[in-house]
Write a structure and sequence with these properties.
The chain is mostly beta strands. The protein is 8% helix and 26% strand. Strand 4, helix 1 and strand 5 form a beta-alpha-beta unit.
């Protein structure tokens, strides 16, 4: 996602995931991006921290947690996990995330 947030810039970039099963160690997973319409994925751009998640947990990986909290307001609490990604989340409209 790439929201227009009050703080502007790239602060509105994030990825929202939902766990489809219980995961004891999320650090075995990562996010990769195929940039600019390319069909080949780059190396992992974000590796999850070591933590467990439950089936159905909403996970937000964002460049700015403060910007996301401001944007979502009271709905921000719907995310069981909000993780800071800093510059590793850079996708835009023609990028594939895997």
């Amino acid at each position: 996602m790439d929201f227009t947030v009050p703080s502007a810039g790239s602060n509105g970039k994030a990825v929202h995931l939902v766990a489809t099963d219980n995961i004891a160690d999320l650090s075995v997973y990562s996010i990769s991006v195929a940039a600019n319409g390319n069909s080949s994925f780059s190396s992992s751009v974000y590796t999850f921290p070591q933590m467990s998640v439950n089936t159905g947990d909403d996970i937000l990986v964002a460049r700015s947690l403060i910007a996301m909290q401001s944007y979502f307001d009271v709905c921000y609490s719907a995310f069981e996990h909000a993780l800071l990604a800093l510059n590793s989340i850079t996708q835009n409209g023609d990028d594939v995330i895997g």
